[in-house]
Amino acid sequence: MPIEIAIDFGTSKTVLACGGKMVLTQPTVASVDSETWQPVAFGDRAKSMIGRTPEAIETVFPIQRGMIADYDIAEQMLKEYMDISFGKRLIKPRIIIAMPEGATSIQRRSVANAAENAGGRRVQIVDTAVAAALGMGLDFLSPGGKMVVDIGAGVTDIAILSSGGIVQCSSAPIGSHDFDEAIIKYVRKKCNVLIGNLTAEDIKKQIGSVVPRKERLVITAKGRNIFSGLPQIFEVSSTDIYRAMKDTAKSICAAIKGVIEKSSPDAVADVMADKIYVAGGGALVNGMKELLEEYINCKVEIAGDAEYSVARGALKALKNPELLENTDYQIRNLEDLIVETP
Fold first, then answer.
1. From CA 149, how far away is CA 136, in angstroms rounded?
2. pTM as predicted
3. By C-alpha distance, which of 271, 277, 279 is closest to 306?
4. How far are the Cα atoms of 81, 119, 187 from residue 78, in angstroms, in the given order?
5. Are 303 and 279 in contact (CB under 8 A)?
6. At what angle do helices 71-86 and 105-117 cross, to 10 degrees?
7. Which residues 6+ apart lie within 8 Å of 205 measured at CB?
8. What tens digit of pLDDT does each residue of 96-153 get?
9. Long-range CB contacts for residues 43-50, cutoff 8 Å, separation at least 24
10. pLDDT digits (tens, 9 = 90+) for 232-256
11. Alpha-carbon distance 310 to 316, whole Å?
12. For helices 309-319 and 128-135, what crossing angle results, to 10°?
């Protein structure tokens, strides 16, 4: 029976890791009864219902920009996912959850309480960037600076790590979901067609890019004409989608540049002599490596399992606490998260 579970409770996706492998990957979305607010479906089934629900059912995204937006649904979702993964007779396991560095003590405690009420014990919180670094196998215990970027769906976490701690960091409220929103706005403006989030996400995955593609790709999609209100089939090219996504991509680059500008010259020199390590689902968008290298003028390495680096690293921190012993960085325990008062 598993006793140690790592959770990457992300805006778009929830990943549970145990025993050195990913045991569950599900969308962080729920469908609920509009009157009682009781869950009807979680995960893939709930995601397939987006934009297709009757008035009696609403779609809920309990995590927004990396933080809990609906506590009750988040708690029930965690319990459901743990039951699916390990069964309802699971003996209370130790749990570690990755959260953005910018989260307040109240926000961290909220997530930790949700995990505890879902069946966990001795819940701990680790910063996303630290978990990503461990997941990519980086050694940040030495004095040399390592820069880690995790491009999630709602938040981009950026940190320079050195001597076992965080030298400089930032959590920018921008991520791969913003690419979807940009595509929706662009299609509406250019084609006079309204599309949903699932269609925008599909377009992004098929022909999206943050740098101009060498070969022009075209995709046919369906939406609703904003003037006639009738269904319409339309075409968009990879050039169109690049134009839609480029401003969001530049904002991510600017957030990374902001952390570099606030860091000491020595730490920056270490980063430039090495490379920038990038994880998260947003790192897999076509052209992200090339864009970052051109914008920041530094080598960039995309994690081999970018979508799972955080969960893998969090599990490593839980199973091997000695990795962070005698360092400036400390994993936060539930009892350490004192509620802030005004």
1. 11
2. 0.91
3. 279
4. 5, 9, 35
5. yes
6. 40
7. none
8. 999 998 888 888 889 999 989 888 888 899 999 999 999 999 988 788 889 999 999 9
9. 43/14, 43/81, 47/198, 50/196, 50/197, 50/198
10. 999 999 999 999 999 999 999 999 9
11. 10
12. 90
Beta bridge partners of 332: 125
Contacts of 15 (CB under 8 A, 6+ apart): 7, 8, 22, 24, 25, 307, 308, 310, 311
At 152, phi and psi to the nearest 5? -90, -170
For residue 329, CA distances in Å to 8, 80, 317 come to 19, 32, 12
Q: Considering only CA atoms, which of 128, 170, 151 is closest in space to residue 278?
A: 151
Q: What length is written for the chain?
A: 342
As a whole number of angstroms, the distance between CA 132 and CA 128 comes to 6
Residues of the chain above pLDDT 90, percent: 74
d(CA 206, CA 33): 33
Whose tokens are 């995990």? That residue is: 115
**159 contacts 166 by C-beta, under 8 angstroms:** yes
